[in-house]
Amino acid sequence: MTIDTVRVDLGARAYDVRIGPGLLSRAGQEIAPLLKRRRVAVLTDETVAGRHLEGLRQGLGDIEMTALALPAGESTKGWPQFSRAVDWLLAEKVERRDIVIALGGGVIGDLAGFAAAVLRRGVRFVQIPTTLLSQVDSSVGGKTGINSVHGKNLIGAFHQPSLVLADIDVLNTLPARDFLAGYGEVVKYGLLGDAAFFDWLETNAPAMAAGDAGARQYAVRRSVEMKARIVERDETEEGDRALLNLGHTFCHALESATGYTGRLLHGEGVAIGCALAFELSQRLGLCSQEAPSRVCAHLKAMGMKCDLSDIPGDLPGADGLLALMAQDKKVVDGKLRFILARGVGDAFVASDVDTDTVRGLLEDALSRR
Ligand code: GLY
Known about the structure:
Layout: E1 4-8, E2 15-20, H1 27-31, E3 39-45, H2 46-59, E4 64-70, H3 79-91, E5 99-104, H4 106-118, E6 124-129, H5 132-138, E7 143-148, E8 151-158, E9 163-167, H6 176-193, H7 195-210, H8 213-233, H9 248-257, H10 266-283, H11 290-301, H12 318-326, E10 338-343, E11 346-350, H13 355-367
Parallel strand pairs: 2-9, 3-4, 3-5, 5-6, 6-9
Antiparallel strand pairs: 1-2, 7-8, 10-11
Helix pairs in contact: 3-4, 5-6, 5-8, 6-7, 6-8, 6-10, 7-8, 9-10, 9-12, 10-11, 12-13
The structure holds glycine.
Glycine (GLY) binds next to loops.
């Protein structure tokens, strides 16, 4: 299989996303053109280090590699592990012209990218995303950061990577639940802007989940292409980039309500959030009755969560969930901002959605539990 290249065309900050099998084992060739000296510093987590760090070391060939493995999990994405990572990079004498590598999922990519953004006022970094979610979303587009006690991703910077290596082979070591959670973000791309891609997913996603490498490569490429085009239009989320948050207003409230635990993974919350966003769009008279049913039918066919009833344990009431939505950093001037849809593949940003309609939707969804 060949390797695909998606260019993220941001002028002086342009970079390639390379997608395909075997990229870890050829990391040295891929990264060498960026290096001023043959040395890289890798930030990773303990789980990913166990699976892939030796493969990366071999792939780097004669490029010297030093690595720090942080604890795996969302709680790493805060000040203590961030300052540990930055101090380690300084102790390793990483210089302005050096490259930091983020080897891991979204937590490591966001933390390492933010460390690179502030280290010596900014060093370059390469993303090597090891989850489906980070390959199709968080490794591309330059959002970096950590969580605060006040909420997720509230501390950070836009800092574009210099290269992204999305190795399809590493998806083989992902637990099935993590793969499907990442698939929530893939579905999001079809739903927000490409009906033909959603059609394709309805036919091909079962094979993709079962391990079909060609289908995986195509789905990652198409997702990254869509993200790249949106980021090129709106790098710092003044407008269109908000489309990428389809399902996320609901998702963030549900993640907060479930304490960012294994009860609900981020991508699972995105899938449920997309289904709710389509149901909301239908209630607002924007799309047909068939659209939300089709979204939910596909998620169910994939064995994914698609409704509040699929979340184990207690949830707050409709007003409690609304209050959590109001804390979302996407709130502008106190107004809830949703991504709504006129149909599959046709989403838009709505900045002033009627709160009573949202409350009614949540009450009905909670009564289905
Ligand atoms: N994950 C949404 C974005 O990158 O804008």
